[in-house]
């Protein structure tokens, strides 16, 4: 539904951020768990899996009438941050 003013736009954004942060925290826990199953930095990066995730979220964007290019950009930035955290977790576990 269309917001009536900027305050309402921001209330909607804040409401969505509350849900997103919760979900991102949950995603971060699983990414951290993945580190235990990795054998080296290349397997932490897992570029083929990254491309599969990007293809999946682009398709989800299309299904939801959302711009796939925007979603891809967000996901590439997000996965880069998650992978950096996973690499740190991997190093804690292995060195
Ligand atoms: C969680 C994994 O590790 C990394 C993080 C990914 C992600 O955030 O989706 C995907 C691939 C890897 O770069 C995985 O290999 O599945």
Automatic annotation (TrEMBL):
Residues 1-90 form the Chorismate mutase domain. Keywords: Isomerase. Pfam families: CM_2. GO terms for molecular function: chorismate mutase activity. InterPro entries: Chorismate_II_sf (IPR036263), Chorismate_mutase-related (IPR051331), CM_dom_sf (IPR036979), CM_II_prokaryot (IPR002701). One of its GO terms (biological process) is salicylic acid biosynthetic process. This is Chorismate mutase.
